[in-house]
Amino acid sequence: MSLWGMLSGLVGGLGMFLLGMTMMTDGLRLAAGPALERILAGATRTRLHALGSGVLVTSLVQSSSAVTVATIGFVNAGLLPLGAALWVLFGANVGTTMTGWIVALVGLKFKVEALALPLVGVGVVMRLTGEGQRRGALGSALSGFGLLFIGISMLQQAFTGLAGQVTLPQGEGALAVAAQVGVGAMMTVLMQSSSASMAIALTAAQEGLLTPQGAAAVVIGSNVGTTVTAVLATLGATANARRAAAAHVLFNGITGAVALVLLPWLVPGIAVAREALDLPPDPAAKLALFHTIFNLMGVLLMWPLAGALARWLQSRFRVREEDEAQPQHLDDNVLAVPSLALDALEMEVARMGHAAVRLARSVLHGTPLRELERDQYVVAQLDAAADAFVERMNRAAMAQGTSERLAQVLRVQRYYQTTAQRALDAARLAPMPGEPVRTQHTAFMEKADAVLALCDPLAGHVSLAEVLACADAMEASYQSVKAALLAIGAQGQFRLVSMEDSLGHLSALRHAAQQAVKARKHQRNGVEQEVAGESAGPSPTVLA
Questions:
Q1: What does the alpha-carbon distance between residue 94 and residue 196 come to, in Å, rounded to a whole number?
Q2: Fewer Cβ in 10 A, N or C end of the chain?
């Protein structure tokens, strides 16, 4: 085979491997997205539980990126503390070593035609007959699994031909080891996949292009190279996402540095461990074992340091988060999992609603228009950020339930937008009422303020009956002050222009409060619904 043919096989095999890995990861993530959330949320009570969750889920999904995305989503939603998230991320590093075992014990041992091609065929049939369903997602994962093994086979054939024509960095000196680490890191950065660089290192070692120590150095470099991807993924991301990425960088960096120092002793130790475990004597199995022990060593190193690391990370990256107009939850890392993206969107819409309700209450309390600009800016910025986030979501691939939930969140967002706008309209029409209606005017303002206080989305759970009763009381006060204003206007005690401005002011405030009530009613878990059969029924003043 010519050099060009072997290089073509190498590039094609790598492409097939990456395509298979992508299809398998995306398919499993779509098929098990909600299950992934439940496992992580319910199994992170202690650091051991969190570590085990990271290992288990990453082993099943075959992608540490998917687990990282889910973990960051939980941190942003306030469902997972940073301390537990660190251990899920550390566990994901251990779980991703399963790829090495698949390649070493299966991928390099069986005839591709016996399993891979049937997997591709069955998976494609499932994908075509189950479009938009879980069966279709599982079909994509199955096809990807088959393509992954086809790619491994192509890589193996290419390296067999290249063995006599290409020389990778050899030797055990400091410069040689540094070059081998650099090769591993560069492959991961260029391919954006540590699994792919791990597969290349395994096949190269299997075909004799790398010594055991050289291949181990490449694996260390591959682990370190994933930190570049993590850093790039957090550009423009939230503070919690950057904290998680910093933990990932520190874990891989510290583990890599210690492994390099111990490398001359680790490699012989791995040989002894391989014999004790009765594993195959080939280089690929030794390397897969090294990859696993290397990451387990990192977990042991971080065990006594995790508490201090979490406290240190919490004190970093605080500048952007302290800016209220800056989104705190809309992290692009969660876009790949629709349910997590909706969790983040709900949290951000709640922050927008809090600012909108605060703006309306400030108008009720007589705050001058120029002092309302800050809350107006916050609402406008968060509204625009939420819209842009929704545009980036993969809405075409959403399940029916997820799509309906998104529509509900967008409805709540519109209600809060209107709440802020109508409050500003009221602030522009705020003449003092005449003395004859001051009592009714004060009563309406107090009732409207009570409604808005109950409708603050960050105020916690409230009773739906309490919200609607307060809204009805506000409506009665509004009708009372409106009738009084019309009466004194008709009697000539109040200029008609001033009467119309006062009515417009009160009507705008009433509308703002009603929109906040609608938002609170439709906000998921925002109000405690009445038991079926005991509902007070729809309020005549607040339409759904």
A1: 16
A2: C
Question: Is 60 exceeded by the pLDDT of residue 537?
Answer: no
Q: Which H/E stretch holds residue 462? A: strand 462-463
| Rg (the chain; Cα; Å) | 30
**pLDDT above 80: residue 416:** yes
Token match 């957090």: residue?
234
Contact 339, 402 (CB under 8 A): yes
Mean pLDDT throughout 91-95? Answer: 84
Displacement of CA 113 from its chain's centroid (Å): 38
Closest to 112 (Cα-Cα) out of 151, 140, 144: 151
Q: Considering only CA atoms, which of 383, 470, 401, 339 is closest in space to residue 36?
A: 339
CA 61/CA 68 separation, integer angstroms: 12
User: How distant is the alpha carbon of residue 225 from its chain centre?
Assistant: 22
Q: CA-to-CA distance for 98 and 88, rounded, in angstroms?
A: 16
Classify residue 455 by its DSSP letter. Answer: T
The dihedral over CA atoms of 454, 455, 460, 462, expressed in degrees to the nearest 10, equals: 60
Whole-number Å distance between alpha carbons of 287 and 281: 11
Distances (CA, A) of 405 to 17, 132, 342, 346, 412: 36, 17, 8, 10, 11
**Are 458 and 351 spatial neighbours (Cβ–Cβ below 8 Å)?**
yes
252, two tokens: 């891989």
Residue 538 clears pLDDT 60, i.e. is over it: no
Q: Which helix (H) or strand (E) holds 528?
A: strand 527-528
| Average pLDDT of span 414-436 | 81
CA of residue 336 relative to chain centroid, distance: 8
Spatial distance between the Cα atoms of 53 and 291, rounded to a whole number of angstroms: 19
**Range of lowest pLDDT (223-232, 329-338, 341-350, 508-517):** 223-232
Helix (H, G, I), strand (E, B) or coil at 463: strand
DSSP 112-163: HHHHHHHHHHHHHHHHHHSTTSHHHHHHHHHHHHHHHHHHHHHHHHHHHHHT
- 170 vs 211: CA distance, rounded Å: 7
Query: Rounded CA gap, 68 and 230, in Å?
Result: 10
Tell me, letter by letter, the H, E, C secondary structure of 386-413. HHHHHHHCCHHHCCHHHHHHHHHHHHHH
CA atoms within 13 A on the CB side of 40: 32
Cα–Cα distances in angstroms (integers) from residue 209 to residues 98, 154, 158, in the given order = 23, 16, 12
Q: How many beta carbons lie within 10 A of that of residue 314, not counting itself? A: 15
**Positive/negative CA dihedral, 391, 392, 396, 399:** negative
Strand, helix or coil at 538?
coil
Alpha carbons 472 and 261: distance in angstroms, whole number: 73
How crowded is residue 511: how many other Cβ atoms within 10 Å of its Cβ?
17
